[in-house]
Amino acid sequence: MVDIDQATSEAIARARSLHDVPIEEAGLAYRTLGHLLEEQADAHEQKIFLIFYGADGQRREYTYREVYEEACRTANLFAGLGLRPGDRVATLDDNHPDLVVIYFAAFMLGATVVPIDPNFDDRDIACILHASRVSHACVRDIYLDRVSALRGEAPACRTIVQMGRRLRQDLPHLHADAARLSTRFAPARIIAATDEALVMYSCPASGKPKGVVLDHVNLLSEALAIGEWHRLSDDQRLMCILPVHHVKGIVLSLITPLAAGGGLVLSPSFQAEKFFERIAADRVTVVSTDPGLLEALLHAKLSVDAYRLAHLRHLICGAGPLTVEFVQRFERLFKRPVIHAYGLSEATACSSCVPVDLAPGEHKQWLTRHAHASVGIPLPVNEMVVLDDDGNETGEGVSGEIGLRGHNVMRCYDADPEATRAAFRNGWFMTGDIGSWRYDGEGRKFFFVEGRTRT
């Protein structure tokens, strides 16, 4: 957590309110993420929640009940290893069902997950382990030597849990040690919606890791809003080809289909040649992507006509700039709409999105007939403005800095009071992104992102 002054605390409280409703009064159907998984396991039992394609191409299925029971076993393992509510556990892994289980085990227990991108270099991983003050780390076998060598840089990290092959007998192993434990779990204390759930660390060019602190209500509010926006239901599946150690992969591709009672198709990495094949085989409805993945599909010169894709409604694209020329090429070739989205970790992944029910002509207008592809209108989980240097809202077509306010806004930057104070002004979280907006025929504000003011 971070020590902040009274004025900053009040600014954060305002920025975490939605239409003057404080985040503590969000009134969600689920208390916590652990409660969400438990309720969905009771409701859907033997229904398939997770389909995983391993690196070997083998397809595996996991029911709602299986995921819940594995999460309970893992939570019991964590508790036996001394992980307590309020502690933090790091993960270092590629996309894998183990990550899904570990996340929810920690959420059930009341611990905080700190996902680390294995593609970070050793210096950055060491900095994150130290800065985040994790007490435990769950590490895939191929990364175990790296993390073991860095352990001296993270004196608070007491325990390393192995995943995959068991390489060391002196360290606990996720599957071997959890297999004999109970499929029921009760936390040591009641977990609250505003308890910390996730800290997302990035490694900016400055070299100082920056941790975004998100709580259960942030993640739940966002996932429920995304599911409603994209009209997801319990008979639909999302495909996750983004890393689930990034906030967009965690929230949009994992928690959102769980909240909708639907399914998730997970792969350890993106394979262009398998993309439409797996969408067709598993009747995927929506895919979450980024511009880099869409570009890889274009370069692969694939044809949608070779597959049965009537159920594929659209692709969500965020996490990077989407140019007008690029979206025109993609939609023309693949005959599916790209739903452009905008968000950042500080606001739990997604703050605005192009409506999915626009008529084709209107959809094309907002994505291709302005200097920038529109990022749509705010999701109902937050408010969105463009402010000038004096903190006043700009008029139509006038550029300024984008500000956000809502139940998806972070608690703070981890142990960084200076960065936290700088990010909240006039009751808004200031994104550092330059943007503008224009009205549509219904009086809705469609936003555009034009650049950055800071990193």
DSSP summary, beta strand count: 21
Main-sheet strand order equals: 2-1-10-9-11-12-13-14-15
Question: How far is it from the N-terminal to the C-terminal residue, by CA?
Answer: 22 Å
- Identify the CATH architecture of the largest domain: 3-Layer(aba) Sandwich
The parts where pLDDT drops under 50 for at least 5 residues are: none
Mean pLDDT: 94
- What structural category do the secondary elements indicate? alpha/beta
CATH topology of the largest domain: Rossmann fold
Strand content: 15-25%
CATH homologous superfamily of the largest domain, by name?
A: ANL, N-terminal domain
What percent of the residues sit in helical stretches (DSSP H or I)? 25-40%
Report on the biggest sheet.
9 strands, mixed
Domains (count):
2
Tell me, briefly, the overall form: globular
Count of helices?
14
* Radius of gyration over C-alpha positions, nearest whole angstrom: 21 Å
CATH class categorisation of the largest domain: Alpha Beta
